[in-house]
């Protein structure tokens, strides 16, 4: 697995994070898949919001199991100029997938032309610690983090497409397409 570092063309090669036989879990029905982790490890995300003070960003660090079921979540909201962090201990369930979820930000700002405003200047750092406290992963480059730079991958969000119809289906779409989908009757979040 490779992540492009934000400042320059360096690439951080993320070698086997768990062991040679452990398959990486698929991305959950969410936004920003970070890494596959195992029981006893701790996932920590520290974030600096370098945006303007008047704009805030709300997000959660979550763990999801192989079936896509959420195990545990910690949330935080940061105004521009603030920094903070969240961390989760992986419960005794085997493999889990850590990811960032911006649904709180989207829900609070759906009336805005750009519901992700306030989240475009995040500088996150991910750590995965083994049970003995030793650092397994340190990564400062993410896929799926909101970015206003042209061509960068934007955060994705889960919607229910055509709810209440035979064509009802849970989809994961870029936030740039969210307003169009909501405009023709889709709803935020997975289908029931």
The CATH topology label is: Hypothetical Protein Tm1070, Chain: A
Trace the largest sheet across and list its strands: 3-8-5-6
Query: The biggest beta sheet, please?
Result: 4 strands, antiparallel
What overall geometry do the principal axes of the alpha carbons give?
Answer: flat
List keywords for this structure.
Hypothetical Protein Tm1070, Chain: A; four-stranded antiparallel β-sheet; 41% strand; disordered N terminus; 6% helix; 2 helices; 192 residues; mainly beta
In short:
This protein is mostly beta strands and 192 residues long. Helix content is 6%, strand content 41%.
Characterise the protein shown here.
- The protein has 192 residues and is mostly beta strands.
- The protein has a single domain (2-13, 28-150), classed as Sandwich (Hypothetical Protein Tm1070, Chain: A), CATH 2.60.290.
- It contains two helices and 13 strands; from the N terminus they run E-E-E-E-E-E-E-E-H-E-E-E-E-H-E.
- Strands 3-8-5-6 form a four-stranded antiparallel sheet. A four-stranded antiparallel sheet has the order 7-4-9-10, with no helix packed on it.
- The longest helix has 6 residues, at 103-108.
- The radius of gyration is 17 Å and the shape is flat.
